[in-house]
Q: What sequence folds into this?
């Protein structure tokens, strides 16, 4: 089979071939499908094009060796998003520049504020620029789950499968992350 014919296969079929043969040429098909998406996710975390390119390469190198961990119970795209976000979170945590920015971010007493039930519409109403600034102030884990839910449009069921926890736990994590975001918005207004 030539590489062009692999492009017609599903992600799961390609992954099986890669896992069975360690064929890097077939892996190139996955790279072609997802490299721009991965780059955009990395750029969202790094805010620097060169760092995003380096991080994208790191993602795909690690992905080649971690494909065997993928289980087709969830969509590959959903699994890949979580994989990318985890690498990005590690990058943010290990990068000195980001750690300095993180330490300069205002610290708020989140528990002392009463927050009404936060609806999705409140999150959507935040302006993109303001939302981006607020997302930089919450934990990478909270940022990740919100981005997976609202930007990447993963369902609670998909998130449950990818994270390996129950749907109610996913709903609670999303709720808490939204509450933190709204509290920060209210403090910044």
A:
């Amino acid at each position: 089979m030539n590489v062009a014919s692999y492009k017609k296969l599903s992600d799961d079929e390609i992954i099986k071939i890669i896992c069975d043969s360690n064929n890097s040429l077939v892996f190139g098909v996955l790279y072609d499908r997802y490299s721009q998406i991965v780059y955009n996710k990395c750029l969202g975390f790094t805010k620097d094009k060169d760092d995003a390119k380096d991080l994208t390469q790191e993602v795909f190198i690690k992905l080649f060796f971690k494909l065997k961990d993928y289980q087709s119970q969830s969509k590959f795209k959903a699994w890949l998003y979580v994989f990318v976000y985890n690498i990005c979170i590690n990058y943010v945590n290990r990068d000195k520049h980001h750690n300095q920015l993180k330490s300069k971010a205002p610290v708020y007493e989140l528990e002392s504020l009463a927050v009404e039930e936060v609806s999705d519409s409140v999150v959507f109403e935040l302006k993109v620029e303001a939302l981006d600034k607020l997302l930089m102030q919450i934990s990478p884990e909270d940022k990740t789950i919100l981005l997976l839910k609202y930007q990447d449009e993963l369902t609670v069921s998909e998130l449950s499968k990818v994270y390996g926890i129950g749907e109610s736990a996913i709903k609670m994590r999303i709720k808490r992350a939204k509450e933190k975001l709204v509290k920060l918005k209210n403090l910044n207004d």
